[in-house]
Amino acid sequence: MTVEATYPDLKGRTALVTGGADGIGRATVIALARQSARIGFIDIAADAGRALETELRATGADVAFACADLRDIEAALAAVDVLEARLGPAAILVNNAGHDERHAFAAVTPEYWDDRFAVNLRPMMFLAQKLAPGMAALGGGAIVNLSSTSWMKRSADLIAYTTAKSAVIGFTRSLARELGKDRIRVNCVTPGWVMTPRQRAERLTPERWAEAQEQQAIKGAIEPEDIAAMILFLASNASRMCTGQNFIVDAGSV
Ligand SMILES: NC(=O)c1ccc[n+]([C@@H]2O[C@H](COP(=O)([O-])OP(=O)(O)OC[C@H]3O[C@@H](n4cnc5c(N)ncnc54)[C@H](O)[C@@H]3O)[C@@H](O)[C@H]2O)c1
């Protein structure tokens, strides 16, 4: 069971989460709601997004969902406008959305390569660019970007994904320097293999489970809540002097 910390400074703060309808993003949205933050989340999955919004509002949470495909930057920025109009300027951005669709090296076309970057990297840049002035006006903020241990493990059959995910670390480091003067902190969270509903449904086999357990220093399933716990710490001023860093949550695999 993940231990739930309380961060009083998150109460009433506006946080935007991409890919918040499922998996790690969903766990992050729920964790932020439990801190009484005001949460806006963007996702391409309309039904799942609306269902989570309804579920959380029933508990009294101040949450709003906007449906958009983050590959369409104009649509993503318009979704931010809608959410900020409802929730106020964001002090926290969690660049979580991503997709680890498998692809054979030989089959990758220029269009497919660009599409994977449009899902896994490009929205991080343009959402940060959009939100940074508002965060600066608030006196500071926190941006958390999601990478993956897959590139560290030299994983095959997903080279466009691993390349984009390794770039997230360089992006994080430069962005921290760009925005530090405005007290905006930028950090990266790098999960190992996390047992989200999609991973359980599409990737989990007895062989892969055994291999992952062999690699992990701490045995057992890494849950979405374990990643959300690190994201919360980096969103809170509890980590006020952490910026430009990468925080790996992989039970000691890499
Ligand atoms: N689950 C893992 O094992 C794992 C490991 C390492 C890194 N990660 C990273 O963590 C992040 C979250 O992964 P997850 O496993 O929770 O994924 P997931 O597939 O369970 O959830 C991702 C969410 O993002 C949304 N999304 C995907 N493409 C989108 C788009 N174009 N526009 C808008 N929304 C979109 C999906 O609809 C979904 O709700 C990703 O960046 C992923 O690369 C996950």
Ligands bound, unique:
nicotinamide-adenine-dinucleotide
From the N-terminal CA to the C-terminal CA, the straight-line distance is 22 Å
Tell me the domain tally: 1
Helix content: 40-55%
CATH-derived topology: Rossmann fold
Q: How many strands?
A: 7
Widest sheet: strand order? 3-2-1-4-5-6-7
Order of helices and strands: EHEHEHEHHEHEHHHE
Helical segment count: 9
Low-confidence stretches: none
Kindly state the mean pLDDT as a whole number? 98
Describe the overall structure.
InterPro entries: NAD(P)-bd_dom_sf, Sc_DH/Rdtase_CS, SDR_fam. GO terms for molecular function: oxidoreductase activity. The chain has 9 helices and 7 strands. The chain has about 250 residues and is of the alpha/beta class. It has a single domain, classed as NAD(P)-binding Rossmann-like Domain (Rossmann fold), CATH 3.40.50.720. It has a 7-stranded parallel β-sheet with strand order 3-2-1-4-5-6-7, sandwiched between helices. Helix 4 packs across helix 6. It is globular and about 45 Å long. The chain binds nicotinamide-adenine-dinucleotide. Nicotinamide-adenine-dinucleotide (NAD) binds next to helix 1 and helix 7.
